[in-house]
Amino acid sequence: MEFSELIRTGQAQAELLRGPEVPPLRGTLCVTGHHLLLSPGAQATPDLWLLLLRSVDSIEKRVAGDSGTITLRCKDLRVLQLDIEGVEATMDIARSIEALSSLESVITSFPFFYRPKSLRLGDAWHCHPPESYYKRVARETNAWRLSEANEDFNLCPSYPRAVIVPRAVNDDVLARSARFRQGGRFPVLSYYHAPSGTALLRSSQPLTGPQKRRCAEDEELLRAVLAGARPGARGFIVDTRSVQAAKQARMTGGGTESKAAYLGWKRLHRPLERGRPLQESFVRLVEACGDLEQSMDRWLSRLEGCRWLSHVKETLSTACLAQMQPSNGGACILVHGTEGTDSTLLVTSLAQIILDPLSRTMAGFQELIEREWIQAGHPFQLRCAHSAFSHTRPKHEAPTFLLFLDCVWQLSRQFPLSLEFGEGMLLALFDHAYASPFGTFLCNSEKERCLCEVRTRTHSLWSGLNQPKEQRKLRNPLYVPNPSAIWPSVEPQSLRLWQGLFLRWTRPPEPSEVAWEKVWQIVTDQEKAEGSPPTVSASESQP
Amino acid sequence: MEFAELIKTPRVDNVVLHRPFYPAVEGTLCLTGHHLILSSRQDNTEELWLLHSNIDAIDKRFVGPLGTIIIKCKDFRIIQLDIPGMEECLNIASSIEALSTLDSITLMYPFFYRPMFEVIEDGWHSFLPEQEFELCSSATSEWRLSYVNKEFAVCSSYPPIVIVPKVIDDEALRKVAMFRHGGRFPVLSYYHKKNGMVIMRSGQPLTGTNGRRCKEDEKLINATLRAGKRGYIVDTRPLNVAQQARAKGGGFEQEAHYPQWRRIHKSIERYHILQESLIKLVEACNDQTHNMDRWLSKLEASNWLTHIKEILTTACLAAQCLDREGASILIHGTEGTDSTLQVTSLAQIILEPRSRTIRGFEALIEREWLQAGHPFQQRCAQSAYCNSRQKWESPVFLLFLDCVWQILRQFPCSFEFNENFLIMLFEHAYASQFGTFLGNNESERCKLKLQQKTMSLWSWVNRPSELSKFTNPLFEANNLVIWPSVAPQSLQLWEGIFLRWNRSSKYLDEAYEEMVNIIEYNKELQAKVNILRRQLAELETEDGMQESP
User: Fold this and answer.
1) Taking CA atoms, which of A28, A167, A381, B354 is between 20 and 30 Å from B142?
2) Of residues A505 and B417, which shows the higher confidence score?
């Protein structure tokens, strides 16, 4: 196996410092193909300390005298310090970690080797197929159909094999429309809002170019959407770029829908930040959070300067806007930006959490992430290659998914009873998106996952998270199903820094966790005393 | 009654009331001597009873014959009344203005309020200094009660009874009083049972420009030190401010004259700077523009959280000197009635588990704020909406409550009371039907005969039906010292006070209730389990007895 070439030393004596309140750990340090191990030796607790090398974001080494210090900054924002005996050992270990943590190859990554005893391969990979969501839609309306036009990923490499499209258009129309949309991402159904009979769709930008090209099939597709909706329904196209940016996109072959070509559709522009500015915002925020000695003024102005909360606010506002129409009068909405794989998904997935009580259950939320992020082709591997500590220049990295999780956290803070999952779930998703023993967040699209045989050769995160012993950390003990839409307040005063994530490792052990732990204890005791199993998520009890 | 002269129009029909979280309601507006009442007559719940003394400022506007009065309350609520008829509107507005700014304390509502509830325990006698002293005297005999200030002659802002070192006689106290600002000689604030160290507080020493000294003062302070031990003097002013104070006759303790004491200067803001900070903060919270940058920079510019951080840092420092270094402390600023009390009372919250219980916290407020002579009347005369900048208003007490809230947020299981308790205290400090927060010190309260003529807030609060609203369901007595984090990231805006009227707390309240329900239900089940266990044990012993013969 090729790992052995990258591992330059067997082992060394080291001391690990994990933060202000945690006692240091001494023992033998070992680098393996995927992990950093510290075994504390016979006399101490037998617990082995383990770190997935993939989760190392940046590494810094210093030597003084005959010992060295390695500082590891992890993708989950933790900072670890290793004091190692021996200069050579330090250098060797540092180089090994550096090489192993930045391996590019997917199929040599840990998920392909992870074989826990409690799980069976292949479990939960079939939990959330597009067909199951289609069944839900089909119960409400017959205006939509499941198309397998993308069976071989020929129409659109970033779409899954099956997508939901208007029943009135055939696969040829889809093929033509795909050619008119960036990356082949023709408009598909994201969410059907049964109470108003309207739909939320997503796509990428149309390739109008400087000549304002048109595509009859693409127009037909959107006409069919309106025709299939409630009579008299209007359409809104939410472009997640500014008017100016959308116009500029024409020069590079992109563009936006012209009013004349799409009758019944009105275009709105809601600029959302993406790509590098978003990554920089994340980096600056984490930097500010790490400094505990600064003055209040400095902290607040850095919090303002990094603009992270502004991005949270803009994202939530756009999600609210996208939904304002269906529940109020009934309008269909198409969301797209440029590629339709980032801000578009932010808006469509958040809108569903706001509107759809099912997506606020544990099972429904997992289904939403699978359908609207993983299968919808958010390029996790590119976006989450590095986190906030990396020194390498960002290329495709962007914390889009983290921004989504932060917005969900804001919702959970404003509606503490309405979400079945708790902060623990959001933290787990953040951690696993950046480095995980599971295969769920590997690769950039379904096509790549098929090529790598991710489904058959790795374990699904969902089967890991849905084990009873994990669920306890992930569920919200106060959950009470709430059938109505939850409209968040998006005024700046209502939005907060997500301390649980950004200050997870820097603040002293959070005392409110003690309170949380206590509530949990009581709820569990209560369930035991009543002799009934914990309530399962509402979606499972659905007909 | 003279109120009648001030009320030009006692009632107006067809007035529309707009207020946060309620739909607009039309009804009859009535003015009484102490209340503004709006009744819709359809539904009793649709009513507004507002104390005039809760009104901080009013604005009036006219559109044609329709007048609008905007009432800004001291608890930061803003309500609007649409009044048909210009004359009525003007009359109402001028009446409200006159009634909400009555000069005479004896005309205030507490002197007219007759409680509708049964008084179980008279709050005026709930926290007597003698009882409080017993807590200290049971542990040490180094301190005594002094009645030197019985007639308020030695220090007008001190209570009649204070705790001083046993070895210092009343004659010496009189001399020390002459040497301290406002006569506030050093007195005991807190006795730390764990190691016998103490917190004292006082006014600044009147050293003046020529470095005056007072042998009795030095003797008093040194009397509190054990042999060979050092102490700390925490001056809540920065060094240059303390130095400037000498020009006005004030000053600070010179090292040469107090060799066993180390002086530490901290900078806690006071007076109008705090008031302006509050005004800016409340303005920012009410800002309707939907811009994150603007909100954060306004929050920063208000400096409110900076003040919180400074106060908490100083309190932690004092607590640290006492608990970790085993040194006694003397705390003072200029007058010793504001920042000094913030520090001494917060240090006790950190150090003393009893002050985190409801009764203990009430005792703390009584001892360290009311008896200690914080001038509530002056400081809480106006709140964040007032335009007329007077000199004496300052949200010193609100800052203290905010700091307590920050600690409570960080240690949610260590306090017997909840956030609502702090909010209630804030409201009553600014406008109340009870006499507790009237007057500026004990001397004034005695002259007003508050004990005889008004009801104590504690008489009302300490009834079981009220207490249940203020009890923290997560409370578990924690006998440890609790060290709050003062990193800027750990401190937050107190939404329960500052965004209370802008954000509906409906969902948060629901969550809170759900938690309370779960905890109550758990207690019931636990009781059931205990009964069953006992029955089981009984049955087992019966079995044993049957088998044994």
Assistant:
1) B354
2) B417
Interval B83-92 mean pLDDT: 89
Considering only CB atoms, which chain B residues are within 8 Å of A307?
292-293
Residue among A77, A285, A300 with most chain B CBs within 10 A, to mutate: A300
Task: Specify the residue for token string 């590891």.
Answer: A72
Compute the nearest-CA separation of B94 from chain A (Å): 34
Residue pair A422/A76 in contact by the 8 Å Cβ criterion: no
Closest Cα in chain B to A307: B293
**Helix (H) / strand (E) containing B82:** strand B78-84
Q: Which of A101, A95, A92 is nearest to A73 (CA)?
A: A101
**Residue A190, φ and ψ in degrees, nearest 5:** -105, -40
The token duo for B180 is 């301290």
With an 8 Å Cβ cutoff, are A514 and B409 in contact? no
The DSSP bridge pattern shows strands A11-17 and A25-31 to be antiparallel
| Cα separation, B211 vs B216, whole angstroms | 15
Q: How far apart are CA A390 and CA A75, in angstroms?
A: 9
Q: Are residues B489 and A480, on separate chains, in Cβ contact within 8 Å?
A: no
At residue B514, the pLDDT reads 84
Question: In chain B, whose CA is at the least distance from the CA of A510?
Answer: B410
CA distances from A227 to A89, A216, A234, A335, B173 (A): 70, 16, 10, 18, 92
Minimal C-alpha gap between B519 and chain A (Å):
7
pLDDT digits (tens, 9 = 90+) for A280-302: 999 999 999 988 889 999 999 99
Look at B522 and A526 and tell me if their CB atoms are within 8 Å. Answer: yes
Q: What are the structure tokens assigned to B98, written together?
A: 């006159």
Is A523 within 8 Å of chain B by CB? yes
Nearest CA in chain A to B503: A494
Q: What pLDDT, on a 0 to 100 scale, did the predictor assign at position B162?
A: 94
Q: How far apart are CA B183 and CA A520, in angstroms?
A: 54
Long-range contacts of A261-266 (CB under 8 A, 24+ apart): A261/A214, A261/A219, A262/A219, A262/A222, A262/A235, A262/A237, A263/A223, A264/A223, A264/A226, A264/A234, A264/A235, A265/A222, A265/A226, A265/A234, A265/A235, A265/A236, A265/A237, A265/A334, A266/A234, A266/A235, A266/A236, A266/A237
- Per-residue pLDDT of A453-472, as tens digits, reads 988 889 999 989 988 888 88
Residues of chain A with pLDDT under 70: 1-2, 4, 10, 20-21, 41-47, 128, 322-329, 394, 507-520, 523-543
Which residues are paired to B355 by β-bridges?
none
Write out the two tokens for A404: 């989504």
Q: State yes or no: pLDDT of B47 exceeds 60.
A: yes
Is A524 at the interface with chain B, CB within 8 A?
no
Q: Is the ipTM above a cut-off of 0.95?
A: no
Q: Name chain B contacts of A478, Cβ cutoff 8 Å.
A: 511, 514-515, 518
Q: Are B177 and B185 in contact (CB under 8 A)?
A: yes
- Mind listing the pLDDT tens digit for each residue in B491-528? 999 999 999 988 777 888 888 888 888 888 888 888 99
The per-residue pLDDT of chain B, averaged, comes to 90
Share of chain B above pLDDT 90, in %: 64
Interface of A with B in 454-513 (CB under 8 A): 477-478, 480, 489-497, 499, 503, 506-508, 511-512
Q: Nearest residue on chain A to B295, judged by CA atoms? A: A492
CB spacing of A511 vs B300 below 8 angstroms: no
Nearest to B413 among A478, A515, A522 (CB): A515
Q: Which of A297, A299, A518 sits opposite B489 (nearest CB)?
A: A299
pLDDT band at B547 (very low <50, low <70, confident <90, very high): low
Residues making up chain A, counted from first to last: 543
- Residue pLDDT, tens place only, B275-308: 999 999 999 999 888 789 999 999 999 999 999 9
3 state SS of B154: coil
